[in-house]
Specification:
The chain has 167 residues and is mainly alpha-helical. It has helices at residues 15-36, 42-62, 75-78, 80-91, 102-130, 136-163. Helix 4 runs antiparallel to helix 5.
Length: 167
């Protein structure tokens, strides 16, 4: 383990890794803004599309990264469909006729996608930067310990944001 807080060589080892890292940072920043800034503004909508494109790029590039598990399929690959489901669930309502559920589905989907990206980032940070010397089983246990609070945060965020929406 490096003495540095962050070692970019742990993250970028290939062209897909570079795309993944760059679009992840874009998604993390735009997702955080979208979750905490005023909703429905022109900037919110524009950054929402930037977020959506970055999340698609993050997920597609993830499919080409195999530096975990000695080059084998990993849990991060298994979560690609989950991430894309939340993104689609949150974006599709605004591409169709508006219904009473449109805004609620958008909130559920985008909260899941944005906070899910933060959960993946936190877990990857742990795996890449902090887990040196741990066994694979210990790394998995710690990864779950990191991810579960994010899952709880997703649930709380969705619940609080849905309460703000008039039925």
């Amino acid at each position: 383990m490096s003495n540095e807080l962050f070692d970019v060589t742990n993250w970028i080892r290939s062209f897909p890794g570079a795309i993944h890292f760059i679009t992840s940072v874009i998604g993390l920043l735009t997702g955080a803004y979208i979750l905490f800034a005023k909703k429905g503004t022109g900037l919110h909508k524009k950054l929402g599309y930037v977020f959506a494109v970055s999340l698609v790029a993050v997920n597609l590039s993830a499919l080409f990264i195999y530096d975990f598990n000695d080059g084998a399929f990993s849990v991060f690959h298994a979560l690609v469909p989950v991430s894309l489901f939340f993104l689609i669930f949150g974006m599709v309502p605004f591409m169709r006729k508006k219904t009473p559920r449109t805004l609620k589905n958008h909130i559920i989907g985008i909260n899941g996608a944005a906070i899910g990206l933060w959960a993946a980032g936190a877990t990857e940070y742990f795996i890449r930067e902090l887990s040196s010397g741990l066994s694979q089983n210990e790394s998995i246990i710690y990864s779950f310990a990191i991810s579960v609070p994010f899952a709880i945060f997703i649930t709380i965020s969705i619940t609080l944001n849905l309460k703000k929406v008039k039925s």
